[in-house]
């Protein structure tokens, strides 16, 4: 499966999030539409923390930008509480290209 995301700024200051997955071998594309808002818009400088929802109630800072060079990549961390004693965590790299340059890969691997 090959995933990709599209982020589109909205007039209200939020960001439309479209996450898609291309399922092989028949290349069926399945997409989810969500909304991202800055978690703490009054903090200066702005932190890379967002509340991202795909329906349902807003989450609290569940999507953190840990690192970016603003041109090639952004390293994202996600955490969701499943219960009082369990959570699900994930991290991934966003890029404007389907592949990233080996030097960028080295940078990300070093974080």
UniProtKB/TrEMBL annotation:
Pfam families: Lipocalin_2. Gene3D superfamilies: 2.40.128.20. GO terms for biological process: response to stress. Residues 4-104 form the Lipocalin/cytosolic fatty-acid binding domain. InterPro entries: Calycin, Lipocln_cytosolic_FA-bd_dom. This is APOD. The lineage of its organism: Eukaryota, Metazoa, Ecdysozoa, Arthropoda, Hexapoda.
């Amino acid at each position: 499966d090959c995933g990709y995301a599209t982020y589109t700024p909205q007039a209200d200051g939020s960001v439309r999030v479209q996450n898609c997955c291309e399922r092989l071998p028949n290349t069926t594309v399945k997409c989810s539409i969500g909304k991202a808002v800055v978690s703490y818009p009054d903090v200066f400088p702005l932190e890379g923390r967002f509340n991202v929802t795909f329906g349902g109630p807003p989450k609290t800072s569940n999507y953190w930008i840990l690192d970016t060079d603003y041109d090639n990549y952004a390293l994202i961390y996600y955490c969701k509480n499943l219960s009082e004693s369990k959570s699900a965590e994930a991290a991934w790299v966003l890029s404007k290209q389907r592949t990233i340059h080996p030097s960028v890969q080295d940078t990300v691997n070093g974080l």
